Amino acid sequence: MENKIIHWFKYGSPQTFYPLAGKMIPWFWALAAIFCIAGLWVGFFVAPTDATQGEAYRIIFIHVPASWMSMFLYIVMAFWAGIGLSLNTRLSSMMASSIAPTGALFAFLSLWTGSLWGKPMWGTWWVWDARLTSELILLFLYLGFMALQAAIDEPRRADKSGAILALVGVVNVPIIYFSVKWWNTLHQGASISMNKAPTMAVTMLWGMLLMALAFWMYSIAVALQRARAIMLEREMHTDWVKYAVE
Amino acid sequence: MQWNSVGEFFTMGGYGFYVWGSFGVTALALLIEPLLLRKRQNEVANILRRERRADESQKKTD
Question: Are residues A176 and A138 in contact, defined by beta-carbon separation less than 8 angstroms?
Fold first, then answer.
């Protein structure tokens, strides 16, 4: 037991994590490609036309997974930032920083695809309703986290300030998720709920889940890649970094 | 499958602009992000390689 704990903590240092991440990245890329091809195939060629929304509903296959990822990545980012803040582990803070831009990208894509879906269905690109506004705030939280970190020269201080912002912003995630229940909104209800039978065709659900898995694998691959770059940049003057690149 | 022709597929029942506008921008974003990251990685790796070479030649002259 004692041995196992030591073994796991070994990967908590950038020095050992760097080559490990390098080995993992190609696998996550391969999985992302497989899930993406399967998801697009189901989404465009297997799932039927929607009775009320016609073909426009197909935007769901990226809109919902992108929205899920934007919220989930925020929680993961805040988690690592919080660990970095409380345990003072530098790798955790690097993980938080490496997730932020990808999370921001998914928040943007959620708003972008939502807007392109809203126009033909609601007749407007944008409304200031609870769901849309809270998702926009999520995008600003990501951008704020990145801007704050970029504005502070000393990396460890940047980590700490960023972590506090990230942790405070976590309250926004349940607000986004439950906004369609709590307020009257133009946005339709949750696509999938835990306590109800799905209201959508099974093939539609599959298309959405496959795309969500593809985005998952993509996010892991990209976050690991960015984490590797951050490790080299931050630890540039240590010996291990000099011999980490061929 | 519900498409009778390639043209029908791209028209998306009249919603082509919205559907392809969503999928197109998403695809573009998810292609650009890894490319930018590769550039960032190469930049820092180049600096490190240069430093290492400088170190090694320093050692030789010492």
Answer: yes
Check: complex ipTM more than 0.95: no
**What are the distances in angstroms from CA A116 to CA A39, A57, B23?**
20, 11, 10
Q: What is the pTM of this model?
A: 0.91
Domain segments of chain A as ranges: 33-45+57-235
Closest CB from A56, A109, A221 relative to B29: A109
Beta bridge partners of A54: A50
B26 at A interface, C-beta within 8 A: yes
A94 part of contact set with chain B, CB < 8 Å: no
* Residue of chain A with shortest Cα separation from B16: A56
Q: Residue-wise pLDDT tens for chain B (62 aa)?
A: 678 888 888 888 889 999 999 999 999 999 999 999 999 999 999 999 888 888 888 888 77
